[in-house]
Amino acid sequence: MRCPFCQSLDTKVLDTDHKAAGGTRRRRECKVCRRRFSTVERVVETMPLVIKKDGRREAFSRTKLTEGIRIACAKQPVSAEAIERLVDRVEAQVAAMNQPEVPARVIGDLVLEGLRELSKVAYIRYAIVYLNLNDLDSVKREIEKLVGSQ
Ligand SMILES: [Zn+2]
Asked: How far is the CA of 5 from the centre of ligand 1 (A)?
């Protein structure tokens, strides 16, 4: 933390109030000019809640997102790095929506968009599980859409 008086980076925390309104508050002292000041810590970015198909809400989980994509990409020529990049991208897109809640379907669509470029097989697998394509006709439609977009 930079001292607001002399710009020195050499400051120490005198005490911390975790219960302060608006976020954790710390009393600091500059080791160079000895002046004191306070800082407040806030969470800058929070991920929205995910609205599931049945209406339940759950916390956005990067782990869960990664797991779903990994399963879809199993035994496909998709590197762990490519999966990581896709997860990063989807996470950033969801955060950028700046919404308190986002439907799972919207996140699923973002994943599908990315998977389409990575692996057609993974794309179809993900579509079947996450878009809940439980009848052959919808699976067929999804494949036709995919083939048609080439
Ligand atoms: Zn100072």
From this structure: 5
For every residue of 91-143, DSSP letters joined together read: HHHHHHT--SEEEHHHHHHHHHHHHHHH-HHHHHHHHHHHTT--SHHHHHHHH
16 CA distance to ligand 1 centroid (A)?
19
Domain ranges of the chain: 11-41, 49-148
From the CA of 22, how far away is ligand 1's center (Å)?
25
pLDDT digits (tens, 9 = 90+) for 5-16: 999 999 999 999
Report pTM: 0.64
Of 108-117, 119-128, 136-145, which gets the smallest average pLDDT?
136-145
What is the Å distance from ligand 1's center to 36 Cα?
8
Residue whose entry in the numeric block shows the structure tokens 């969801």: 94
